[in-house]
Please model this.
Amino acid sequence: MTEGTSAKAAIKTRTMEIAVAIFILLCGAIVIYDSVRLGAKWGEDGPEAGYFPFYIGAILCVASVVNLMSALAAARRDHTNFVELGKLKLVFSVLAPTAVYVAMISPLGLYLASTLFIAFFMRWLGKYPWWLVGAVSIGNSVVFFLVFEMWFKIPLPKGPLEAALGLN
Amino acid sequence: MEEIQSLMQGFAIALSFKNILLMFAGVILGVIIGVLPGLGGANGVAILLPLTFSMAQSPGGTTSAIILLSCIYWGALFGGAITSILFNIPGEPWSVATTFDGYPLAQKGRAGEALTAAFTSSFVGALIAVVMITFLSPVVARFALEFGPPEFFAVYLLTFCAFVGMSKEAPFKTIAAMMLGFALAAVGTDPVTGSLRLTFGQTHLLSGFDFLVAVIGLFGIGEILLTLEEGLEFRGTKAKMNMRVVLDTWRELPKYWLTSIRSSAVGCFMGIVPGGATPASFMSYGVARRFSKDGDKFGTGMVEGVVAPETAAHAAGTSALLPMLTLGVPGSPTAAVLLGGLLIWGLQPGPLLFVEQKDFVWGLIASMYLGNIVGLIVVLTCVPLFAAILRIPFAIVAPVIMVICAIGAYTVHNSIFDVWMMVVFGVIGYVFKKLNYPLAPLVLAIVLGDRAEASFRQAMLVSQGDMRIFFSTPLVGGLTGLALFLLLWPMVSAAVARMKRAPGA
Model:
């Protein structure tokens, strides 16, 4: 990433700095709010449940305000890109299938979902021939099945495929 | 010498056939984990931790489990050198300094020499650190037996303030990341009063955030997303490794004995301080460059420039286990995961461990000696194999690592919700890493949050809410004072720098 170029910037670093500082500030506010709800003072029998988290929330807020200020102060000078458009697309092209994969684990079972995920990834991003895609994706799940179900006896989520094969 | 006797007993435990097999398995797995992008020491251990749950149930099983996991750690430390030298990709932050001279050496066709020097000096650094652990940790543990809640809270405070003082990131970013970790640790049922904190009616959050899921997400998924930006292919140089190269390099290495000793000292000292491995490697590289007679040739491919950072990084990575064992305060993210493992297996890390779990402690210490010997043998003989792993295209490796991470996150509590949390933590890790928010203090805070809060509350109960208890005795006052000094160090050093600059400006 070359510094100072603004060509095809998806997100500027300064924008992201400010966004993250505000996000952490919100987290701090939530912590304080919930600590006060629980009681952040000195109870009859000692410190209440919110006593310690209250301080955590307070420090969190102070630190993020300082970060926000320095991000705002640096905003005029800083023209670097947080991520370029092409790279952002690449990142999302991995994140989106990953999200779909996690969503598929429950209905399909982990092994089938993993096979499909690896196959999709290799074919779409790697453009590998089908025989290699099949070998790696199916082989991977078979190995994991042997390691987890047979060797370590740790059951992972299974779906209709395992039921049909009688592997439950 | 009581320590020697205990150590011999430890060797008797560690030298069983099963444990040696576990050492080899751990080291080989560890090197693979260290070589693959997206899998590092911390999340590699985190992913494999659930596999040890059943192993730890059998008698003596906790020792076998910790041997397996700590050997993965040693392996990952060794693996970092391979990627730095052959591919110019530092696998771990403390391998960055190794690339300065290691990669130029590899480009000149002297990769075998650089690798041998790196592995051997890593081994030397680790060995010196283990000797230090052997003799120093019983002393520290005995000393810490006297600690009460205020002392323990002061030690936690020191740990976290050291992060602020030592980190090269902006101090307020370090504090923000750390406090976010504490906030995440607070989620769930309050252990003292039983009231629900920060759950907002979500049943998934009742048991809180598991640090293992956070580690797998932050370091695993986050790292994959970062690596993706660099492109899908790695180009590296080939290494010629044979017995001749190894022996020739070994003949040359004793020349650098002074560098080794200096770097080990820097590493051992910095390793005890949390987050010390990375600054230790940079510091000892800088020191070696200043003292070497070929100092100006550093960066062009000097063997000495590989020896210095590798020795220090390994010494620091190993000595990070000293505070973990004796005080229950881990010095690095990986040590934090190991500490979490101890807690899950039902062991209480801290001074009592040396009294109540002698077999465990000394078995572990003995396995550190053996594990590093095993590690040296494995890496010296198998470099081409491990380098070949890195040549597998990322489009194949990345989804497989994603699946491994997902399985790792799922097996912690058998819950799909954790897998979703892993993805969320992955995005957080990616953004934080790019904006220079440090991840290590975040992870340490999630692991230590509950314990720090417990000792804080107990101390407050003793003093009836009077903060002055943290200055009540010379010991606790000294610890607190040192913590505050480290906390304010960035401001002090900035002020000093400004004063120095002022007359010239």
